[in-house]
Design a protein that fits this description.
By secondary structure, the chain is of the alpha/beta class. Helices cover 24% and strands 30% of the residues. The protein is globular and about 40 Å long.
Length: 175
């Protein structure tokens, strides 16, 4: 499993329930990483996506919610609401089943944790890799995700320019 997220320079992840920045470079990176893979998100993250982009195209969208029955009418081929917080285990243990049900998945699909804050807090330590984009501005966010990556992960700069920095964190191997 991998996590992918973007923050401003103060670790802000959203303002008034939406991402306050527009970065074509970050969106392209996110799309290219997660395309033909599984994305797991909370319901607030799902409903914060612009309606025309829901569910995320060419991905199996898993939405964690305490009340999945409330959203059953929204489910479709690539969108699934569940309260099973171990759904990732079921997916990993039944890869062939998911490949046959969701033909858009890559043969070697990855499960990406894509937010929000509670989902990151719950799953990031289970991830083998974290992709963090830092947008190099302050956006007066009202929701933050602060995490000490150095404890579990080794850092490598993937890309950097004046607008943003993309960091790849790989899980350290402990003996």
């Amino acid at each position: 499993m991998e996590a992918i997220l973007a923050t401003d320079i103060n670790s802000g992840i959203s303002k008034n329930g939406i991402i306050p920045w527009k970065s074509k470079k970050d969106m392209r990176f996110f799309f290219n990483k997660t395309k033909n893979n599984v994305v797991i998100m909370g319901s607030s993250t799902y409903f914060s996506l612009p309606e025309q982009y829901r569910p995320l195209k060419d991905r199996l969208n898993i939405v964690l919610t305490r009340v999945p029955r409330q959203f059953i009418h929204l489910e479709e081929e690539k969108l699934f609401f569940t309260d099973d917080d171990k759904i990732y285990e079921s997916i990993l243990n039944n890869r062939e089943k998911y490949l046959s049900i969701y033909p858009a998945l890559s043969r070697n699909f990855i499960i990406y944790i894509i937010g929000g804050k509670q989902i990151y807090e719950k799953y990031i330590s289970l991830c083998d890799k974290v992709w963090l984009t830092i947008i190099k501005k302050i956006y007066s966010c009202d929701l933050f995700f602060n995490y000490d990556y150095a404890e579990l992960f080794k850092e490598r700069i993937e890309d950097e320019d004046d607008e943003l920095k993309i960091i790849e964190y790989n899980k350290k191997i402990f003996n």
